[in-house]
Amino acid sequence: MALSIRAFALASVIRRNLSLAIGSLLIALLMLVATIGPRVLRADPFAVDLSRVLAAPSRSHWLGCDSLGRDQLARIVWGARLSLGVSTVVVAISLTAGGFIGGVAALAGGWIDGLIMRAVDIVMAFPGFLLALALAAILGPGLTDLIIALTAMGWTGYARMVRGEVLSLRERDYIEAARVLGATPRRLLLRHLVPGLAGPLVVQATFGVGGIVIAEAALSFLGLGARPPTPSWGNMIDAGRAFILVAPMLTTAPGVAIGLSVLGFNLLGDGLAQLISHRR
C-alpha cells in the first residue's frame, strides 16, 4: 500500500514537471539503446562489406551504410554505449575528486582553503575544452587518455560547488546544534553535510554528463578520442562529412543522437533542480 502511494506521488510530480518527464524518457531510451540495442540488432558495426558502400536506407539497413559498407544504425547504437560509458565515468571521477577537494578546503579553512582554491582558480583560468584538447593532443587518441583529458576539464566545477555548499551548510542551526551536542567531525560529515550535498551534486552531475557527451564527440571528431574503427558519434560525423551531399544520413544521424542525448540530460537536470528547490 505504501509503495503504491509513493509511486502515485512520484507520477504526480513527474506530470507537473514537464522537463523531468521528457528528460527521464529521453535518458531511459538512451540507456535502453546502449544496453540492449546491440543484442536486438545483431548487426556487426565493424563488418566491412564493399558491396554496400554508401547504401541508402532500406528495410535491412534502416540508416543505410557508410563508406565501408558498415551498418550505420549498428554503429549509432555502439556509439551510444561508448558516449554514455565515457560520460558516466568522467562525471563520476570528476565528482569524486572535485567533491573531496572542495570538501577538504571548506572543512580545513584558513591557508589550506586559500591554497586549494587558488589552485582551482588557476585551472579554471584555462577554457575547459581547450585544456581537454591540449591534454588529449599530448596524450594521444584512446579511451583512457580521453577520460583523463575530460576529467581534467570537469573536476573544478564540483570542487567549487561542494566548497560553497559546505560553507553554507556549516552555518545552519542544526549543524551548530549537532556540534554543541558533541558530534564528531566524521558524524557531522556523514550524517548532516553529505545528505545536504546530495541534491545539488546530482543536478550538477546530470548537467555535467550532457556537457561531456558534447566534449567527447568534439574530441573524437578531431581525431583525439576513440580510435577507428571503434564507433563514436564524433568520428562518425568526421568520416561522413566527405559524403554529405550523396549520403547526408552519415552525418545527420549521429548529430541527431548527440542533440537528443544532450537535450535529455539538460531537461533531466532542469527538472531535478525544480524538484529539489520545491522540496526545500
What's the structural blueprint in terms of helices and strands?
Layout: H1 2-16, H2 18-41, H3 72-108, H4 110-124, H5 128-139, H6 143-169, H7 173-180, H8 185-221, H9 233-240, H10 249-279
Helix pairs in contact: 2-3, 2-10, 3-4, 3-6, 3-8, 3-10, 4-6, 5-6, 6-8, 7-8, 8-9, 8-10, 9-10
Short description:
With 280 residues, the chain is an all-alpha fold. Helices cover 76% and strands 0% of the residues.
Would you give an account of this structure?
- With 280 residues, the chain is mostly helical.
- It has one domain (16-45, 52-279): MetI-like fold.
- 76% of the residues lie in helices and 0% in strands.
- The protein contains ten helices and no strands.
- It has helices at residues 2-16, 18-41, 72-108, 110-124, 128-139, 143-169, 173-180, 185-221, 233-240, 249-279.
- Helix 4 (110-124) packs across helix 6 and helix 6 packs antiparallel against helix 8.
